[in-house]
Structure formats: C-alpha cells, structure tokens
Fold this protein.
Amino acid sequence: MDAAPAPARRFGAALAPFLERGPLGALLLGLASGFPFAMIASTLTTRLAEAGIDKRAVTAFALTFLLYNLKFLWAPLVDRIRIPLLARLVGQRRAWLVTIAGAVMAAVTWLGAADPVADLPQVVAAALAVAFLGATFDVVIDAYRIESLRPEQLGAGSGMSQYGWRLGSAGAGALALVVAERMGWPAAYAAATVFALPALAAALLLGEPPARVAAVAQAPHPRRLAERFRETFVAPIADFVLRPNGWIVLLFILLHKIGDTLANLSLRLLLNDLGFSKDEVAAYDVGFGLVATLAGIFVGGLLYTRLGMMKSVLASLVLMAVSNLSFAGLALVGHSNPVMAAAVGFENFASGIGGVAVVAYLSWLCNLRFTATQYALLSALASILGRFLSGTTAGALIEALGFVNFYLLTTLLALPGVLLFLWLMQREDEPPRPGSVAPVPA
C-alpha cells in the first residue's frame, strides 16, 4: 500500500527545500533583480530600432552594461551607510531595498517617457540611470539574499534566485512589448516597473536578516574620516586577501569561467557561420536552451543538497569544461538541428548546475560585515577576464584556429580552474557556512 506513493514522497522531499521561506524570498528577489537589465537590453534595442536610430548609436548603448561590472566600486557604501529614519524603522538592508526599488521604478519610467527621436541625449541619461540603479539594486539584493539564507539553504536559495532572474528578465521584456504594441512605449516601461514589487514582498516575507543586525552591532564605528574610509573601502578587501588561501580563491574566481565565457560569447558566430536560420536559433538556442538551463538549476540544487558545496562546485566545473567539447562537435558536424539542440542543451544544463553551486560558494565566502562589497567584487572578478578576452582576442583566435580547434582551446582554458579548485578542496574542509559574523574558510 505504501510502495506506490514512494516516488511522489521522494519528489516532494526533493522539492521541499525550494519551498521554504528563505528560497521563496530569493525567488522574489531574483524576479525584481532581472527587470532593470531587460529594460536596457533587448527592450531598449527594439525601441531604438523602431524609432529609426542609427545602428551604431543603438549598439553604443551596450556600454551602459559596464556599470554592472563596476558596481563593486560603490558597493561599500551599501554596507556602510544607514539611510536616515528608514533604517531605524525597518533595518539597514530593507531600507536600502525599498529606497533603490523606488528609484529604479522612477528611472525606468523616465526612460520610457524620453523620446529617442526628439531627445536622444535624454534617453542616454535615462539609460545610464537605469543601469546604475539596476546595478545598485543587484548589490542590495545579493547582500540581502545571502544574509537571509541559512547555511543549508544556500544551494536552493541560489537556484531560486536564478529562476527569478530569468523569469523576471523575460517577463518584464515580454510585458513591455505587449503593452507597447497597444499603448505605446511610455506606458510599456511604466507597466514593467511592477517587476520591482516582488522585492518589497520579499522584504515583508523575510524581515531584516538577523545576521546583518549582528554584523552592524559588532562592527567598529570610527569617527575620523581616514578611519571611516579604511573601514568602508579597505577593510573588505583586506579581510579577504588576508584569509588562509585567500589569494588562491581569488585566482580561482578570476580563471574558472574563462573557457565557458569565450565559448558562450562566440556561439552565435558559429551558428551564423553554419547557416542556421533565425527561427532555428530562436527555437533551439533560446527556447530549448532556456528549458535546459532551468532544468540544470533544479538539478544543481539537488546536487548541492546531496554532495555538499565543494563536491557540487567541482562537478559543475567539470561539466562546464566538457560542455565546450559539444560546441566543437557541432562545428565538426555542421548544420544539424539535433546536434545543435544537444550541444546547446548540454551547455545550458551544465551552466544551470554551475550557477547554483558556484553562486552558493561565492555567497559562503562573504564576510557578513562586508556582504555587499565582497559579493559584488567576487561576481565581477568571475566574469571580467573572460569578457575582456572575448572582446579582444576571440575573433582573431577563431580566424587563426577555426571553430573546432577554438572550442578545444576553450576546454583546455577551463582546466586551470578545475585544478585550482581541487587544490582548494585539499586545503579546506567542507565549509558549512558559519553562523558567525565573519565566515572565513578554514
């Protein structure tokens, strides 16, 4: 009698960690985090192209995304500054969340109201405001998520946050297009601001993180300007690099995504070279790839629960390295929809798993006194080298080596990250995230 529902019970047990308050709050935060990015990405590109703006001017708007890579420069202010009155009423993290959510909504509404034909400079200013406030929103949301999750919730919480980001980004972009078709772009951008509201719902659901309250209580409160500067900007970096294995960890973070980033940012070039149509790219790279990513995020949460943090990170690194070989296989086979589906599916599935495990690891590394600063820095380091190499050398490498050898090279470039992490595993214990104010790996 009890044997029949056993699979359902096992599935329910696997699903249960995702339905706890912390991970559900992370889902809401992710929904809000994804929407500003969408407003200055494909949505703005569509609007500018529709308005007849020169293609070079349209592509130049991509420079606004640099603010997302530079957010670590002002992230210390989020850790240090308490918003007057509001912080006393609702706590430091929630005060920042409410304030920046309102500011992002105002900036997005401004971007929608600006007319690219009549006043393109105003559109530029509004897009920069959305990018700056969106990046700051990410800083606040990441810190709030990390401090709100219990140690055993890091994997599920990281997965739910990524689910939220992708759904929020896609949902806001789709809503904007639907509304724009019927009511125009100003109404479309104003309507999309509803995607900031889940962050406020998360603030009500999760409350002020107890870890943050303890961190604020124990943090020094220097009076001199030089001491304040040191505590705000120098102490977070010094705290990290002076840890045991701190420099090894930073080197790992800098190197581990080079191969994956080079492979992914060049994939559309391969698909174009092989003659895939826009419909085929939309169906397989976008549609099937999204499904594979979401499946990978779910499996990544399960692996994190079963294997623990360090082993799940190692597994994801190996999978992401091997997935580059699938692109080499596609380049070798040529125009084949089944092979493209398999290659894109495997790569996105591996990236989904890696996103959960690596994000959880980066979250654990943060000292709760400096959560916003350290996570912003670590997440920037994780992507900056790969993006730089993609922009400066990827094209030349593809022309010199051909696509097959290029993707074999990206696989080799992933190996230093795997080897460095194996070394770290030998030097560190499996890290349950400490509940103290300063969780430092052993």
Notes: The chain has two domains: 21-218, 232-427.
